[in-house]
Amino acid sequence: MQQKQKIIFVINPISGDLDKSLLEEEIRCFADSENFWFHIYRTTGTNDSIKISELIKTHTPDIVVAAGGDGTCNMVGQLLLNSSIRMGVLPSGSANGLAMELCIPAPIKKALQTIIHGSPKPIDVIRINKNYISLHLSDIGVNAKVVQRFQKDTVRGFWGYGKHLIAELMDAKPIKFSLILDGREISKSAYMIVLANASQYGTGANINPKGKPGDGVFEVVLIRAHSIGHLLRMIIPFFTKSIDQLDYIEVYSCKKAILKTNKNQVVQIDGEVIGSIKEVEAEIIEKAVQVMVPQYALTDNT
């Protein structure tokens, strides 16, 4: 007799606008129809990683599901690094960039179907300053400051983000930095420096059209606009996948990067601000997490 699959659902109760009680009911109904064992863990913001790690050791699940946004995915991904345990995603955050990148459907019933009947896709992660990983997109500069503002606001969603983006653009100043890319050193200034393991933010803005989360490299994207007007003129290219065609956008593919700035800068990783620091060391870890995706999302080098 085939053994039941065991799945732990990690639910962030405050992410996004979705009613998590309805989400939990969907999970229960789906577990009954698909006949799998499950456990629900609700994050509290206090020692969540330690508690989830203990649950994984106790229950030895086949899949651990991140039900939240990119920050929740990051936390679960870190716990599953180089593990045979697969990761599932129920997109239910303010930003669901990783889910969009991997073609994981937004409707909960379809996302649950993907977790059970999809296929595991190995993706790379970026190790940052030894203590962090990025599954998706991390950056310094304009967007990181917007995320910092956004996290302190009670208004969520696209409009909350847009309000802070406009305010930050009006106050933006270029950052001076040095950058070592696989041993090659350059010195420049930019309004924003992105470490990209993927192509687009959860808003749909495509910062790195050639980015693929399983190709063994990541991109460093430099937004070297010469004025606020240049920054504003980036909006249409962001959503037409042509941002890399602007002459003040530079994109470098690498396996390792060391970034040093002239003063502390706000850094965000997968939608979560980690603080203000002057040096960032990033290195790719290939095929580090197995994420359940629809069959059609399984393509070479993506």
From TrEMBL:
GO MF annotation: an example: ATP binding
InterPro entries linked to this entry: ATP-NAD_kinase_N (IPR017438), Diacylglycerol_kinase_cat_dom (IPR001206), Lipid_Phosphate_FormReg (IPR050187), NAD/diacylglycerol_kinase_sf (IPR016064), YegS/DAGK_C (IPR045540)
Residues of the DAGKc domain: 2-132
SUPFAM superfamilies per the UniProt record, alphabetical: NAD kinase/diacylglycerol kinase-like
Residue ranges of coiled coil: none
The organism's place on the tree of life at top rank: Bacteria
Family annotation (Pfam families): DAGK_cat, YegS_C
GO CC, one annotated term: plasma membrane
Keywords, ordered alphabetically: ATP-binding, Kinase, Nucleotide-binding, Transferase
Cited PANTHER family: LIPID KINASE YEGS, SPHINGOSINE KINASE
Protein name (Swiss-Prot/TrEMBL): Diacylglycerol kinase family enzyme
